[in-house]
Amino acid sequence: MPEEIETADRVGSVSTSRYEQIVAELLKVVEAQSRGQFVIGDGALEIEPMRDQYAQGERSEGLFTVKESVFRLAEDIGLTYKTVSTVRWVASKWPKERRQDKVSFTVHRILARIEDEEERFAAILTPPEGKSRWTPDEAKRRVGWQVTKPITPQEKVSAIHSLAQDEEVAATVTGDFLRRPTVVAQVKEEDKVRVVEELTRDDKVAAAVAPDFLRRPAVVARVAQQDKVRVVEELTRDDQVAAEVTAGLLRRPDVAFRAMSDDTARHQVNNAQNERGRQAREHFEQSSPVAPAIRGLDRSVEFLDLITACHAFVAASGRVVPGLRDRQLGDDERVIIHENVARVRATLDWIETAVDTGKVDVDDELARLLQGE
Q1: Does residue 74 contact residue 81 with C-beta atoms inside 8 Å?
Q2: What is the Cα–Cα distance from 211 to 213, expressed in whole angstroms?
Q3: Quick one: which of 86, 105, 240, 298 has the most CB atoms within 10 Å?
Q4: What is the mean pLDDT of residues 228-249?
Q5: pLDDT tens digits for 204-220?
Q6: Could you give the CA distance from residue 187 to residue 363 in angstroms, rounded to a whole number?
Q7: Which residues on neighbouring strands pair with residue 15, listed in sequence order?
Q8: Contact call for residues 88 and 70 (beta carbons, < 8 A)
Q9: Which of 373, 356, 357 is nearest to 365 (CA)?
Q10: How far apart are CA 332 and CA 348, in angstroms?
Q11: CB 170, CB 164: distance < 8 Å
C-alpha cells in the first residue's frame, strides 16, 4: 500500500479538517490523562511525602520504608513502581496551583528538572518563541536533554554520539565520515592529528603511512627540527643505511663543514680514516706478492714525510712570526705561546733521537707535554 504523503489539504490519510478534529479530541484525552497522573502522584505523596534522603535517621531506615510504601501502592493499583515513583516526584515539583491544564504531564515531567522553583514556574507559562504551546522536544531543549527529532547541527551531533555509544558502531560511522572529503575538510587540525595518531597506533599501519608522508616536501617542511633529527636517528639504526646516508650527506659542503665543526664527529672521522688506512696496509702486506720489496721504500716515504713536516713548520713560522713586530701580546697569550714552543722543542728532540738511534718510544713526561698536559 503506497505511503500517504502530507499535502496542503491532507495529513496522512485524513483531510486537514478531520485531522484538526482528531487533535481537539485527543487534547481532551491528554488533559484527562495528565490530571489522572497528577491524582496518582498526589496520592503517593500523601502516603509518602517527599523527604531529604540524607535527613537524620532516614538514610538507612526511612528510604527503605518509602520504597516499600510506594511499591505496595503501585502493585495495588496495577502500575509499575517506576511509574508511581515518577508521578510522585513530578507532583512534588508542581503544586496544584502551578499546574497547567493545557500542558501535558510529559512536559510537566521534563520541566520539573529545572531546579529553581521560580524559574520553573515561569518557564511553563512561557512557551518558546514562535510556539503557541510547549512540546516535549522544546521542553527537552529547555533543560538540555537530547531531543527526539534533532533539528540544529548540535542536536544532530548529540544524536549521533548517542547512537554510536557502541564501539563497533562508532568505528563504522567514523570510517564512513572519513571517506567524505567535504567532511574531513571541516575537521579541526588538532582533531585530525588525534585521528591520525589513533589510526596509526598499529606499527604496521604507521610504517605503511610514514613513507607516504615523508615523500611530501610540504609535510616534511613543517616537521620540527628536533623531530626530523629523531626520525633520521630511527631510520639510520641499521649500520648499512647509516653509512649510505652519511656518505651522501658529507658530499654536501655545508653539511660536511658543520659536521666537522663538532669535535667528536671530527675525531671519529679521523679515527675511521686511520683505521681504514691500517686495514688497507695490513691487507696489502698479507696478500700482495710485492709487499717485501715495497717495505724497503717505506723508510724513504717516512723520510720524505718528516722533511715535509719540518719544512711546513719552518715555512709557517717564517710567515707568521714577522707579523708580531711592534705587537705586545698579553700575559695569557705569551703563556700559551711558551707552552707550545716547549712542545715544539720536545718534539724536535724526539725527532733527533729517533733519527740517531731508531728509537721512537715516548716517555711519560714527553707524552704529557705533547698532549698539552
Answers
A1: yes
A2: 5
A3: 105
A4: 78
A5: 777 777 777 777 788 77
A6: 74
A7: 10
A8: yes
A9: 373
A10: 25
A11: yes
